[in-house]
Write a structure and sequence with these properties.
The chain is α/β, with parallel strands linked by helices. It is built from twelve helices and twelve strands. It has a seven-stranded parallel β-sheet with strand order 3-2-1-4-5-6-10, sandwiched between helices. A three-stranded mixed β-sheet has the order 7-9-11. Strands 8-12 form a two-stranded parallel sheet. Bound molecules: (3R)-3-hydroxy-L-norvaline. (3R)-3-hydroxy-L-norvaline binds next to loops.
């Protein structure tokens, strides 16, 4: 049985979908603190779970005896700055509860997402390497940095096979993002199709590492399927994706929607968060250790997003 915690979220929805296609619906237990979204409700078993409620979480582990656990529940960068203590508690204590029960119930593999948010103003901004100075200044960022340290600790101390990826901003059509700084890159597609225009909360030349969700899910499954001896990073793997600015994304959309117009808001608090993050990432460890290769470049991603969103908007 595979337990996915945070199944209603942007990544969780996609992972449940992908894992159910591979393993069969009944092998994948979707769970979240709120009742299932439409996408999740009709595709297999669901449990209400609160990672901060040890009794409830223990009951779910005991009932399902999972062999794999994916912990996606978190508060992201922008919301985390509005609710810093809640973000620290959910992101940190929630992870520790899941790591402890994964050891107790002898879970074979655990996945936990980190983020390029673990880098900060003094990290190299271009082709940011796997190892470098990391001084994240968002609660979300340093909760992910601390989480990486805990994951490596549980691997070294308890032999728990926990694996992780530092995701860039993720763009997909099956589920919306949940309160991050890169959310503009999803909202822009919805607004382009609904209104023909979009006001970006990040400035025109804010370059960030991004990735199409299909690539992110493929990378996650490749990492989880890799033989344990291939995994040389037990904190979290850099994953590069595609780096672009809001202007470059808008120009690519205009190639398919010539009437589309973009404008830019000023002084959005998310600008400072974006400015503290790398502009591009080096993911040579992921390429070397488990054969990572990107599939979606910017034109291919924009085309696929618009084709699929058109069907559901
Ligand atoms: C956020 N989407 O914006 C997340 C992600 C790299 C960005 O961690 O907070």
């Amino acid at each position: 049985k595979i337990l996915v915690i945070g199944a209603n979220g942007q990544i969780g929805t996609e992972l449940v979908n992908a894992l159910r296609n591979i393993h069969g619906a009944d092998s994948v237990i979707a769970s979240d603190i709120n009742s299932p979204t439409y996408a999740i409700r009709h595709s297999g078993p669901f449990e209400l779970v609160n990672v901060l409620d040890k009794d409830n979480l223990h009951h779910i582990f005991n009932k399902h005896q999972p062999t794999q656990v994916y912990l996606l529940a978190a508060i992201l960068s922008a919301v985390g700055e509005q609710k810093p203590k809640m973000a620290w508690d959910l992101n940190m204590t929630g992870l520790l509860h899941v790591l402890d029960f994964s050891v107790e119930f002898k879970v074979k593999k655990v996945f936990w997402p980190s983020s390029i948010a673990v880098f900060g103003p003094h990290s190299p901004q271009f082709n940011t390497p796997q190892y470098c100075v990391m001084d994240p200044n968002t609660v979300y960022g340093f909760s992910k940095l601390a989480g990486e340290r805990w994951c490596e600790y549980y691997f070294n101390k308890y032999g728990l096979d926990v694996r992780s990826i530092r995701y860039p901003g993720l763009i997909g059509w099956r589920a919306n993002p949940g309160g991050g700084t890169t959310d503009y890159a999803v909202h822009i597609f919805h607004e382009a199709l609904k209104k023909g225009k979009y006001q970006s909360f990040l400035s025109a030349n804010t370059a960030l590492p991004m990735m199409y969700m299909d690539d992110a899910i493929k990378a996650t499954l490749m990492l989880m399927d890799a033989p344990a001896e291939k995994i040389t990073i037990r904190s979290s793997y850099n994953l590069a994706g595609i780096s672009f600015t809001p202007t470059q994304l808008a120009d690519e959309i205009k190639k398919l929607m010539p009437e589309f117009e973009i404008s830019y808001a000023e002084n959005d608090p998310r600008q400072a968060i974006a400015d503290s993050w790398p502009k591009s990432i080096d993911d040579s460890y992921a390429q070397k250790d488990w054969g990572w290769q990107l599939e979606y470049d910017l034109p291919k991603m924009v085309g696929d997003m618009l084709v699929n969103l058109k069907k559901i908007i």
